[in-house]
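Batch job 17 of 40 flagged for manual review because the log was empty.
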Amino acid sequence: MPSDDSNLLAVERQRMIVDILRREGAVRNAELKELLGVSLVTIRSDLRELERQGECEIIWGGAVSKTPPTEYEVLLSERSQLHPEVKRRIGAKAATLVEAGQTVIIDAGSTAVEVVNNLSHELDYLRIVTPALNVATATAHFPNVELLMTGGILRHLTRSLVGPQVVRSLDQINADWTFLASGGFSIDHGVTTSNMLEVEVKRTMVRRAKNVVLVADSSKYEHVRSLNVAELRDLSHIITDSGLSDADMEAIEALGVQVLRV
C-alpha cells in the first residue's frame, strides 16, 4: 500500500498532477495514488490545493482540468477507423516475423492489435504479453497462444492498463519481440508519445525485448509528441506504408533500423 513517505515534495507532486491534467484533461485518484506512491488522503489534499489555485475542478473519484488539454488524443474506437487497410497490411507484415515458441510483447493501439489479428493459427505455441484489452480480446481466439496480461489501472482512452504494476509485470519478461505503437516518430526525436502514464510502460517494453518493432503508418512520421520513448536506433525494425519516402527510409536505415514498407 502506498504510504506518505514518498520522496516527492508536495509541490513536485502537484506539478506532476498539473502536467497530467493539461495533457489528459482529467485525472483519477486511483491512478495518481499508484503513480505517485502516496495515499488517497494525500492525493485528495493535493487536488484541493490545485482546485484552490484554479487548475482543476474536483469530481467524484478525481478531477478535471479547467483548461483544454495541450495534446489531443483520439479514442481507440475512433483511431481504429483511420487508415484501416494500411494498418491491416502493417500488422500482416509484422506477424510474419513471429515464430512458434517465442514470447512477444504487444503494445496498445489500433495498429498493434493487427499483429495478433494476422498471426497464423498454425503456430504450435506462442506467449503474448500485453496491457491492452483489445489485444487480449484478439488473442483469446488463438487456442495455442498463452496470454499474459499485466496488472494495472485501466486508461479508458486507450483501453489499456497503466501504472507501476504494468512496469513490474513487464520487468519479469524476456521477450523475443516487442511490437510498439507510437503517437509519432522522427529521426531527430525518435519514438514519442503524449501520455505520462504510458511512457514508462513503453520504455519498459523496449528494454525487455531482443527485437523492437515500431508499427506505425506513415502519417505518424515527423509528428513529435512531448514525451520521448526511445531513439530510432533502439529499434530493430519499423513497419510502415509506402507514404514514407525513399529518402526518409534511407535516412532511417542509416541508423541501423530495417524499414519495411507495405
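Reviewer: the log was empty due to a logging misconfiguration, but the result itself is present. The longest helix spans residues 10-24. Unflagging and moving on to job 18.
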